[in-house]
Design goal:
The complex is a heterodimer of chains A (314) and B (228). Chain A is 40% helix and 14% strand. Chain A is of the alpha/beta class. Chain A has a single domain, classed as TIM Barrel, CATH 3.20.20. Chain B has 228 residues and is α/β, with parallel strands linked by helices. Chain B is built from 9 helices and 9 strands. A 4-stranded parallel sheet of chain B has the order 3-2-4-5, sandwiched between helices. A 3-stranded antiparallel sheet of chain B has the order 1-6-7. In chain B, β6 and β7 form a beta hairpin. The longest helix of chain B is centred in the N-terminal third of the chain and has 17 residues. Chain B is globular. Classes of the chains: A alpha/beta (314), B alpha/beta (228). Chains A and B meet through α5 and α6 of A and α8 of B. Bound molecules: iron/sulfur cluster (2 copies).
Chain lengths: 314, 228
Amino acid sequence: MSDNGYKSGSNLEKIFAMGEFAVTGECGPPKGSDVSVVKKKAEHLKGYVDAVNVTDNQTAIVRMSSIAASKILLDMGLEPVMQMTCRDRNRIAIQSDVFGASALGIKNMLCLSGDHQKFGNHPGAKNVYCLDSIQLINTIKTLRDEGKVMCGDEVEGETKMFIGAAANPFGDPFEFRVSRLAKKVEAGVDFIQTQCIYNMDKFKRWMKEVVDRGLHEKCKIMAGITPLKSLGMARYMAKNVSGIEVPEEIIARMKAAPKGKKAEEGIKIAVEQIQEVREMEGVAGVHLMAIEWEAKVPEIIKAAGLYPRPSPSA
Amino acid sequence: MIIGDLKNTDEILDSIDDAKKVLVMGCRGCVTICQVGGEKEVALLASQLRIGDKARGRNREIIELTIERQCDAEFIEPILGKVKEVDKVLSLACGIGVQYVSDLGLPTPVVPGINTTFLGVNLDTGLWKERCQACGDCVLEITGGICPIARCSKSLLNGPCGGSADGKCEIDPDVECAWQLIHDRLKALGKLENIERVIPARSWATSRDGGPRTRIREDLRSISREEG
Ligand code: SF4
Ligand code: SF4
């Protein structure tokens, strides 16, 4: 079958090519080899998202590998976005794992720096960072487009990956954040998922600069949305998660919601956020990170008017 | 300079437990400047060990000696006799000094009294910070004189990562984000373009990752051969 000019031929890539507003979800693998955990989360997402991010030992806590969990999703008929961090693998392991993932049928990946191991359950681990996330993007692009590994050796077979990366509009220094995105574009990124957005004004400012620099035409920008389950979660995110800003008005809304209705309010906020980013120029999709709350994804997607999902013809 | 930290007393006591005569050996180099292994610290540790021994009813000889540099033959040779006289040398030099004495081939074992921690600067009284990892291919010219290898927690060449907040690194609110510093410095220098393009992956072969490093300067070696 011809690839019709697609870089990877992934479902996500095709959705973008159709000009549809894309939706991705997220699935954190279990802290062990319990397949049922992956399956249970994935069942909630099936049919409601175009692809599912599979995290790579997120927050540096040892979990089932993202490659293995991605393969489980594939077998269930869901399309994975395999996350890969630069924290745990050198350039030999990274390229090798990407070959393996591609051989298993994985067509999307997300290139990340990774959370430092200091906060994980193995703070004594060696931190690798043989490459950084931008160099990783470029490495995968070279594998795919030139058929070469970093040293220049030819690869056997094709490595068709749709290359994603993260962007944090709320990280500092704010004025350099769009330049950093531009570097990811220069390195060859195809799509971007942002950090979860609560501070819409700041996101708008960031997005405007992205559009002014024409970066939205060179890669697809997906806005990160995480529904808040409780007031406690809102406060925790505001205080403890580096690179996330939760404005006072969101906290106030969660606070004002009656007891027993906080989760409902959180979902309402998420739906409004999706609708708001959908209106913004340059935003090509949403990345819905319903952390340990996958069961609510169908409700949110439906309420946001994003269901049913389009099915691209092969 | 090389920064070190005194090991805890129990660990030190354990390491010299089997010795009847111990030489506590300091160095007047970096460890004197960072106040961990100079003459003063040698005297202090030696007296602590004597007091500890006394409390345990133990009678052994603890000798003190601080030399100019423990990593240089010129200063070690004159004191070889002293080293041979003892059962153990407890060195307060950095790991390099410990190995230098240890490698002389004497029967006397040499044990470290300090942990060699990093290459850094003394910023204030009692405050030292890491500055260099001796990576073998210095990039300070690009990064405005701030080292991303030693000072970014992830050694990123294209930072800052998403965890940078209010100038601090995601690993600790007391750790400055090197990439915020690099950004600010380059901005002040009018050189932000240095980091606006992708910095390609580097080779780590020049760093420790390439295996133990040896440096040979043939020009110097041939002069020394001619001079005989
Ligand atoms: S770039 Fe390398 S040599 Fe230069 S200061 Fe950093 S670690 Fe040291
Ligand atoms: S926050 Fe700054 S110093 Fe810390 S890992 Fe990220 S870029 Fe490096």
